[in-house]
Specification:
Membrane topology: Multi-pass membrane protein
Subcellular location: Cell membrane
Pfam family, one: BPD_transp_2
Strand content: under 5%
Oligomer: single chain
Strand order of the largest sheet: 1-2
Number of helices: 14
Organism: Planktomarina temperata RCA23
Protein name: Transporter, permease protein
Radius of gyration: 20 Å
Number of strands: 2
């Protein structure tokens, strides 16, 4: 194992340890910010697992996230199931759904794949609303547990660490090598014998698994959930913006994008609630015109440029 690889793991372990101390040293307000940050770090990092190397822009995160939250709420409200069993079940359902969707759609590419994934989340949201209104007689679900924000923060941190370690292992495996070739040129990847459909489905399934798990974990925080809340398309756009802003070329890139974006969004939403949507537009413009490879990509360019001057 290279020294740089060991150094990267040590830095990641130190950051995870420091992050674990956050709930012990901050007040309720900053703990709430920490829960939001950790939720989006887990979602954006799992998004980068698939979309980073393949360059497929998926807007289906809200679909899997919503399934996780909705199944936990339904299981605990209607069947008195335990949170842990429903969280595990939700993650498995999210993975199976992602695999089925991947098998049916990952032959699409470009704008067609983006439109389909956005439409998928909206279709599931409307389907769930229709079932609740017409067959269940209620629109929302109650989720009561003994968990505090501290517990949810640590659970989300555990998921984020698991996603990072899985991505780190994949990036150094034959699967990661195949993904990089697919991202470079999918036609070439097929010609050299890579089963591109299988590789993409495996990674898309992983993304669905973790997004559903995060949705299941965050459900108790809201106590009362309804389809418009857990299947919100805004969540999918947030995840994409945060990942691209930080840099989708590195696993730790989303961390760089999540924290400043959330702080700016919360400040604007608090002080100028009618103008908060402008933050999304400005973020897109900044990514397209100034940070096409994210903050991490820009820093790497500056490092290379400084070396050429020596």
């Amino acid at each position: 194992m290279k020294a740089s690889t060991v150094q990267e793991l040590i830095i990641a372990a130190i950051l995870a340890f420091l992050a674990a101390l956050w709930p012990l040293v901050v007040d309720i307000y900053w703990l709430g910010i920490g829960v939001d940050v950790m939720m989006y770090v887990a979602l954006a990092t799992s998004w980068v697992l698939f979309s980073g190397p393949t360059h497929y822009i998926s807007l289906a995160t809200a679909a899997f996230f919503g399934i996780g939250g909705f199944l936990v709420g339904s299981g605990m409200s209607d069947y008195e199931a335990s949170f842990w069993s429903m969280a595990a079940f939700s993650a498995c359902v999210g993975a199976v759904l992602a695999a089925l969707i991947g098998l049916a759609t990952l032959r699409l590419s470009g704008v067609y794949f983006v439109i389909f994934t956005l439409g998928l989340a909206e279709m599931i949201r409307n389907l769930v609303s229709w079932i609740q209104n017409n067959f269940l007689g209620s629109r929302g679900l109650y989720v009561f547990t003994d968990f505090t924000d501290k517990h949810l923060y640590w659970m989300l941190l555990g998921v984020a660490v698991a996603v990072y370690l899985l991505g780190w292992i994949i990036s150094r495996s034959r699967l990661g090598f195949a993904l990089r070739i697919i991202g470079g040129d999918e036609t070439v990847a097929r010609h050299v014998g890579i089963d591109t459909a299988t590789v993409k489905v495996i990674l898309f399934t992983t993304t669905g698994f973790f997004a559903a798990l995060v949705g299941a974990i965050i459900a108790p925080r809201w106590s009362y959930i309804e389809p418009n809340q857990v299947f919100s398309p805004q969540l999918s756009f947030f995840v994409v913006i945060m990942a691209l802003l930080g840099g989708a070329g590195r696993l730790w890139g989303p961390v760089v994008g999540v924290i400043p974006f959330l702080l700016i969004w919360n400040w604007v939403d608090t002080n100028f609630p009618n103008q908060s949507i402008l933050v999304l537009g400005i973020a897109f413009l900044v990514i397209v015109y100034f940070l096409p490879h994210g903050v991490v990509g820009r820093l790497e360019q500056l490092r290379i440029w400084s070396r050429t001057l020596k």
